[in-house]
Design a protein that fits this description.
The structure is a homodimer.
Chain A (H helix, E strand, L loop, with lengths): L8 H13 L3 H10 L4 E2 H8 L3 H13 L3 E6 L2 E6 L2 H14 L1
Antiparallel strand pairs in A: 1-3, 2-3
Helix pairs in contact in A: 3-4
Chain A binds a DNA duplex (30 and 30 nucleotides) through helix 4.
DNA sequence: CGGCCGCTTGCGCGCTTGCGCAAGTAGTGA
DNA sequence: TCACTACTTGCGCAAGCGCGCAAGCGGCCG
């Protein structure tokens, strides 16, 4: 069983920042899409159903939380998940929300 | 490996609500404390280091997200974790935040 | 170089959040 | 009933968030 739950204020701040990045349905929708592989901003914008600038801002939130990483190819910027654990965390949220 | 990540807008809304409840360091501190067993509001207020009304509001957030449950005993109201998975979710956040 | 495409950034708006403080409520005991 | 304790709720404020819109890059191609 995993123990070691108690943490410092700074660590809690960081964990809270991750949770905050996950606290928006559109960003969760992005993660679902990225689970199928990397996507460009306009692809994500289309799939999620919002305007490109708005999507870019959501992606910036996910990126500054370290949940996604980017790769530039010509005019396109492709986003992908930074870590498999991001999906595991999302699955935990889904499990609790059920 | 767990699949079944794709969900409806409503389900994403619910998952996002869980994440939002976890997106504050004080509330995470509450969860850490409650991992050691149930506590009264004033105990939590003391441990976390905030005023009682503020703690009551944070607990209301956790409660309406279904992460904690209450039990009344005389003048005291005791809070405890609603589910072991809440701690697992927190541990996932810690793991990603590292 | 000039125009275009893809993405990011800045700005302003309405809404939500966390907080302190004051007031209200529920339960206990004299 | 009255006072006391423990907790909740209402209120107002400052800060933050999501969004649309417009403007600003950066990289391609003719």
């Amino acid at each position: 069983m995993t123990a070691l739950l108690v943490s410092s204020e700074l660590e809690r701040e960081r964990s809270a920042a991750i949770a905050r990045a996950l606290s928006d349905p559109k960003r969760l929708c992005v993660l679902e899409t990225l689970a199928g592989g990397e996507r460009s901003v306009s692809e994500l914008s289309h799939d999620v159903g919002c305007q490109v600038p708005n999507m870019s801002q959501h992606l910036a939130v996910l990126r500054s939380a370290g949940l996604v990483v980017t790769r530039r190819d010509g005019n396109n910027v492709f986003y992908r998940l930074a870590d498999e654990r991001v999906l595991e965390a999302y699955r935990m949220l889904q499990s609790i929300a059920r």
